[in-house]
UniProtKB/TrEMBL annotation:
One of its GO terms (cellular component) is protein-DNA complex. The lineage of its organism: unclassified sequences, metagenomes, ecological metagenomes. Keywords: Activator, DNA-binding, Transcription, Transcription regulation. SUPFAM superfamilies: Periplasmic binding protein-like II, Winged helix' DNA-binding domain. InterPro entries: LysR_HTH_N, LysR_subst-bd, WH-like_DNA-bd_sf, WH_DNA-bd_sf. This is Hydrogen peroxide-inducible genes activator => OxyR. Belongs to the LysR transcriptional regulatory family. Residues 1-58 form the HTH lysR-type domain. One of its GO terms (molecular function) is DNA binding.
């Protein structure tokens, strides 16, 4: 039994396909299949039911996969221990960021972070929160930048900043004449939302749920959910409804005509807590701390605390 064989069976389980697993591991499919077959013969068990599409684990295969994931993770920790003893930040670091943060935060810090850590090979992916947490659990991602708290016992959360929500209101909307708005002004049937799966959507729904009014506007005639905040903003700019946007996005609009559509919330201001998240057993804490410090250096000071506001729940 080898670590390589264990990595192969974990990959097949993750991708539910021998072909996809071989592509991800950059080996030929016959090589991967042969090594898995050798492992099955050594253990005298069948790990996968190859008659099913997609491929599924046998009952004993499920138990062995769980142990294989632990072995692979613990093996990787040996390299992490050595790297952590060094004062230098080296090696590979896989970071993932949710779509409602990435376009507004990444350009602020990533160039400086790489310049200050020239021996670090950084990979960044844009994924939804559930995908990031799953990637961390599978050891495919080292850390993520997401909205928190997640209430996940397997995940460490290191808060970076607290980002206010703003309303983005079309000129023909009833709230356009208000200088500031409150939760009580909001009607969930009157706000453009992101698609299911975006935590930003869940937080907007939670902000609206604090409206104590018993009646809301009539059901909208157009049912539309966007894949990006930019799409929702375009709807508003064409005199169609309203939406909520995060602070860093709003700041990019302040020097243009778009600023006239932005409305602040009255106190207490709804905010989202943005954190770096990583596995509790993750050893490369030096990289995490460097990342946190670099991001904080490039943020407006008002975002560094949650005074005059409250953190909106995710669930």
């Amino acid at each position: 039994m080898t670590i390589t064989q264990l990595k192969y069976i974990v990959a097949v389980n993750n991708y539910k396909s021998f072909i996809k697993a071989s592509e991800k591991l950059f080996v030929t499919q016959p090589t991967l299949s042969m090594q898995i077959k050798k492992l099955e013969e050594e253990l005298n068990v069948l790990l996968f039911d190859r008659t099913k599409m997609p491929v599924i684990l046998t009952e004993i295969g499920q138990t062995i996969i769980e142990q294989a994931e632990i072995v692979i993770s613990e093996t990787k920790r040996i390299h992490d221990i050595v790297d952590d003893e060094s004062n230098e930040i080296t090696g590979k670091f896989r970071l993932a960021i949710i779509p409602t943060i990435a376009p507004y935060l990444l350009p602020k810090f990533v160039k400086a972070f790489l310049e200050n850590n020239k021996d670090l090979e950084l990979t960044i992916d844009e994924l939804q929160t559930d995908q990031i947490i799953d990637g961390i659990r599978k050891d495919e991602i080292d850390a993520g930048i997401v909205a928190t708290p997640l209430s996940n016992k397997e995940i460490n959360e290191m808060p970076i900043y607290y980002e206010p929500f703003y309303a983005y209101v079309s000129r023909k909307h009833s709230l356009f004449e208000k200088k500031k708005i409150s939760n009580k002004d909001l009607d969930i049937n009157d706000i453009w939302l992101l698609k299911e799966g975006h935590c930003f959507r869940d937080q907007v729904v939670n902000i609206c749920s604090q409206n104590e009014k018993k009646t809301f506007s009539k059901k909208r005639l157009l049912n539309f959910e966007g894949a990006t905040l930019e799409t929702l903003v375009k709807m508003v700019e064409n005199n169609f409804g309203m939406t909520l946007i995060p602070d860093l996005m709003a700041r990019e609009m302040m020097s243009s005509e778009k600023s006239k559509l932005i409305r602040e919330f009255k106190n207490p201001i709804p905010k989202r807590e943005i954190s770096i998240v990583f596995r509790r057993s993750f050893l490369k804490k030096k990289i995490i701390l460097k990342l946190q410090n670099e991001i904080i250096k490039h943020l407006p000071k008002e975002l560094k605390n949650k005074r005059s506001g409250y953190v909106v729940d995710l669930y």
